[in-house]
Amino acid sequence: SSCVYFDEDIHLWQTDGCEVGLLTNMTHIHCRCDHLTKFAGFVPPNPLNIAEALSANVLENPAGLVLVLTVFASYLFGILLTRKADRRDLQKAGVGLLPGHILNPRKECQYVITVYTGFRGNAGTTAQVTVALNGFKNESVPFKLRDQQRVLFEKGSVDSFLVSTEEPIGELTHLRVWHNNGGYSPGWLANTIIIFYNVSKTKCRLLYPFLTKRWLSVDEDDGKVHRVIPTALPEDLKKFRNLFLAKSSRDINDGHLWFSVVGRPARSPFTRVQRLSCCLTLLYSTMLTNITFF
């Protein structure tokens, strides 16, 4: 440690007239200066001699080398897993067309249904999920949400589907969602369902949020696998609980560097491989900083 003062003429820290006092210990620095100015205690970093470090016999202290190589090997293994997950996310990011569904070319009859599955344990489902839309004018036929190219309704997944009705059903008032309780894990935690709807050929899209946030499972909640969900009102969207859960989920799964390697949203441009590489860089930088100052 050393005592320095700030030279306002050259805007640098200098040591002239300052010295470390006898009261310096492991937690405090005692500075003695013969002039009044802005002074502070300074702990300089340890000098690093890269050439000497590379030429040293690593067998004398192999723990550091083993740690660095273990971290890098774990990173390479993680790259294989995250790259595979990124490829799977590319399939999830698109909007699927239901098998056998004939799309009505009229824009005012088309709807994009986006389903958000919860992040809790066993939130995903293997059952066949069906949705029916209800508007002021009419009710749509049931839409079986299927896709032959991807696995649907996994934990934390976001799945989108393009559907259409024969005639416009008007502004949406509620929807019905249910599943057939099939497969080895039929229980499903439906978080939110958002529907985009073209009012007409000339008017822009409307967004209809449906806050489900309930289980469709015979073993959870009230044991029902059929729900009638009304369109969320503006005051529902502004409730503290809904805002808190939405923001915390987004921050953890997309904003947190380490957790987002696993929970990264499929539509995020920041891939899992990039996030994992940032984690490695941060870890190695922290190790280098510890070597420098400790």
UniProtKB/TrEMBL annotation:
TM spans (from-to): 63-82
InterPro entries hit by this protein: GAIN_B, GAIN_dom_sf, GPS, PLAT/LH2_dom, PLAT/LH2_dom_sf, Polycystin
Top-level taxon of origin: Eukaryota
UniProt cross-references to SUPFAM superfamilies, sorted A to Z: Lipase/lipooxygenase domain (PLAT/LH2 domain) (SSF49723)
Keyword Transferase attributed: no
Name by which UniProt lists this protein: PLAT domain-containing protein
Similarity annotation: Belongs to the polycystin family.
The keyword Membrane is assigned to this record: yes
Keyword set, alphabetical order: Disulfide bond, Membrane, Transmembrane, Transmembrane helix
Localization (cell): Membrane
Source organism of the structure: Branchiostoma floridae (Florida lancelet)
GO CC terms, sorted: membrane
PROSITE patterns listed in its UniProt record: GAIN_B (PS50221), PLAT (PS50095)
Listed PANTHER family: LOCATION OF VULVA DEFECTIVE 1, POLYCYSTIN FAMILY MEMBER
Residue span, PLAT domain: 109-230
UniProt xrefs under Pfam families: GPS (PF01825), PLAT (PF01477)
Species classification: Eukaryota, Metazoa, Chordata, Cephalochordata, Leptocardii
Signal peptide segment: none
Residues annotated as domain GAIN-B: 1-49
